[in-house]
Amino acid sequence: MGKGRKMLKWREVAILTVAALVIFIVGFANFGDRDVSAEAKNMGPPKKAVALEQASELKKQIKGSNLGRSIDEKASKQAHEKVVYLTFDDGPSPDVNKLMDTLNKYHAKATFFMLAPNIKKHPEAVKRMAKEGFGLGLHGVTHDPNKFYRSGKSALHEMEQDQKVLEDITGIKTHMVRTPYGSFPYLRESDRSLMESHGFKIWDWDIDSEDWELKSRQYVPKVINSLNSIEKAGRTPVILLHDHENSATLKYLPELLSYLKQHHYKMKSLDDSMKPVTFQCHNRCYAYSQKHKSNR
Ligand SMILES: [Zn+2]
């Protein structure tokens, strides 16, 4: 094997040397943009015959070599590259390290919207997230809509507490928040303004995997179907997923990640500088308690 590889390397070096020589002889420099055969055809004999033969052989060799291939692949990848943002709520769970391992296998980044008590339980995992470039977001403290949405101040206060817990562990002060169950319809317009005036950015999603309800492989085709319609609408996909212990989300995640990879999606993490994807209230928001009173 070793010898074979070495010979292959020498062969490639030889091909490249011949390539350089022919380019020099034929007398043009910009190989990639010009047709070698056409250049050679314009020459007079006998130089023409030699150059034609060499040029066509060279084209074949360069096309078949690793060099030619990697350039082709890179160009086609750039042309097809699309971005998707995976987000995981409610963690960190005891499985969060496995989750990061799986993401890493596919060179995928993601963002975690985390609860303060869980951050305290898994500080090392959260440090690892920060170190490896995953996105860090806040999800509050109680995850109880009756408490979180009781007032604008209660929602703000939970996010501030969560922010402090995360900062104490990682040294990073994030402003990305996702309110429990999403900002609509619970977060009233005034609560939203209060949170935003304190610098928080409220992130919702445009694809709900429904992993929390399906609890099976079914969330994968659900996401794939939604992706197609989001893409047609020209929007950037932000996918809601959950970091729960022993979850179907983690079990079937490789299936989703390999689909995304095969379809040239780049999986990135969110950051504080981005404009958030967020549900609009349009005066239809109301507090959780009001919702239950009116029984809607
Ligand atoms: Zn949640």
UniProtKB/TrEMBL annotation:
Gene3D superfamilies: Glycoside hydrolase/deacetylase (3.20.20.370)
InterPro entries: Glyco_hydro/deAcase_b/a-brl, NODB_dom, Polysacc_deacetylase_ArnD
Domain NodB homology, first and last residues per copy: 82-268
Annotated Pfam families: Polysacc_deac_1
Protein name in the entry: Peptidoglycan/xylan/chitin deacetylase (PgdA/CDA1 family)
